[in-house]
Amino acid sequence: MDSLFARIMAVVLGIILILTVSLGTLSYYSLRNQRISARLDYLASEAEDIASLAGDLNSSGYTLPFFQEPRKALNRKAQKVNDEFGAYIAVVDRWGNVMDNLQTAYSEDPDFVASLSGEEISAALQRVMAGETIQVQSMVGNDPTFTVGVPFLQYETVAGAVLIQTRAQRIESGMEDLLAQVTGMALLAAAISAVALWLVVRGIMKPLGELTEAARAMGDGDFSRRVDETRGGRQMRQLSATFNGMSERLKKMESGRREFVANVSHELRSPITSIKGFAEGMAEGVIPEEEHPKYLRLVAEESNRLSRLVGDLLQLSRLEREDATLEKTDFDMDEMFRRAIIRRMNDLDQKDIDVECDFRSDPCMVYADQERIEQVVINLLDNAIKFTGDHGRIRLITEEVGETVQVTVWDDGIAIPREDREQVFERFFTADRAHTAGKGTGLGLSICERIMTMHGRKIELLDPPEGTAFRFTLDRGRKQERHSDNPDMLPSGDTPAEKEEK
Asked: How far apart are CA 332 and CA 478, in angstroms?
């Protein structure tokens, strides 16, 4: 877990570093361009001031005493611009008079002045004399140069132009402090992000570590471990809750498995012990020979009981195989109930149970796997017979509802306790109502539920005013005419359920 934490931190820190450098570079160039644009605007503003002074000077007609004061002001402004930008400044009027700081500029930067292009200056002056204000960047020799040009007016007519040229590096100078500021802010942001990331990842990894330890304990068979569901983000809390739910289910499954093994062991031991005892008694002469037929019948009954238990286990195992399939056909649900009643007639007569068939559409055709549904019917009917007292009642109901058929099996026996209702279909559940000694393994309802799941349907436990009722639904089949009007006619050959028992 620590190595995973280190790897995650390394990867995310690398991403933060890349993003910080990228965003820092983007911010630097954005701020640099903004500062250059601001300095150009400032230079243009200074050019406008010089143009205004040049206009005043032109209006004085270069005569005393008006000539001296505008000239001094113009010189001061030009000197200020030259000091800040090392620029070449030229003031030209429409009569061809030129004032410039060529000598001053040459004394400060002779290479720059020597590189100035007369053709470029002439072209720029023509644009400005036409009334255009310009801000352009061009190459003078091997160096980039900024040129600013502003016209000045007299009687609403362009009287001349002010042209300022300076090296681009003078405009772009002083960016070192900007780079330092951006670098400092980027490093600060990266540091804050790294600390925040460490806290977040640590907050995530710590619950994950606990989850890993709990999972390892679960792998070792300890299903009692739980994790804190209140720590971490929403997804982590959901994961913790899911893990705890899984642990609880696994704990119940393990408990059910152990109980199932104990119950099956008991169910197996009981008939085996009886068979062994009767066989030894007859072999050793403890049981008189005239009593042998009686005890052989008991041995046969115990053998059948043992066979049913093994059959249930095998049946559930076959249903849960991935390659288990259904063979759906159209068949009469009412006829299936009639056959089931005939097969259980002896059990019904022994307990004097009255069976009511409430077939609201006869025939009632369904489209399903006939053999599997017969297993469901036999299981539900057997349960109803087992848990219905003497002189009790069982009601079998079939009803078409839309494109489905509802099938209900009700008995007036003791109702399933409310605390057991949610677990009654669990394969290893064994409450008194679902499993008692000698009355089954608690697998019958699990088999029914699995068969209905394979059909894409559900079997549900109803809540009638008295007794117990189970209901399931099937797809409606195509209507067919009944082959016989005699409900008591026995079918020729074995039914699918009889074949299953054999």
From this structure: 10
Helix then strand then coil, % of the chain, to nearest 5: 55, 15, 25
R_g of the chain computed on alpha carbons: 50
**Residue 321 in domain:** no
Query: Following CA atoms 301, 304, 308, 309 in sequence, which dihedral angle do they give, to the nearest 10 degrees?
Result: 70
* Final residue of a structural domain among 159, 177, 195: 177
Domain tally, the chain = 2
Domain with residue 352: its CATH number is: 3.30.565.10
Q: What is the DSSP string of 335-370?
A: HHHHHHHHHTHHHHHHTT-EEEEEESSSS-EEEEEH
| Last-in-domain residue among 119, 142, 177 | 177
> Is 295 within the bounds of a domain?
no
Which token pair is 459? 């079997």
Residue 146 placed within a domain = yes
Question: Consecutive sets of 10 residues in the chain, 502 residues long: mean pLDDT of each?
Answer: 63 77 79 81 85 75 52 83 85 84 83 81 88 82 82 84 84 69 78 76 70 78 76 76 82 75 72 85 86 86 78 74 81 93 90 92 90 91 90 93 93 86 72 44 80 91 91 86 42 42 42
Task: For residue 305, count other CB atoms closer than 10 A to its CB.
Answer: 17
Nearest to 123 by CA among 136, 113, 106, 110: 136
Q: What are phi and psi of 411, to 5 degrees?
A: -135, 160
Q: How far apart are CA 406 and CA 360, in angstroms?
A: 10
Q: Write a three-state SS string for 426-485.
A: CCCCCCCCCCCCCCCCCCHHHHHHHHHHHCCCCEEECCCCCCEEEEEEEEECCCCCCCCC
Domain membership of residue 294 (yes or no) is no
Mark 324-363 as b/e (b = at least 16 C-beta within 10 Å).
eeeebeebbbbbbbbbbbebbeeebeeeebebeeebeeeb
pLDDT, tens only, 363-373:
899 999 999 99
User: Which CATH number does the domain housing residue 7 bear?
Assistant: 3.30.450.20
Enclosing domain of residue 171: 2-177
Which of helix, strand or coil describes residue 89?
A: strand
Supply the DSSP string of 182-243, one letter for each residue.
HHHHHHHHHHHHHHHHHHHHHHHHHHHHHHHHHHHHHHTT-TT----TTSSSHHHHHHHHHH
Residue 282 CB-half CA count within 13 A: 16
10/201 Cα distance (integer angstroms): 11
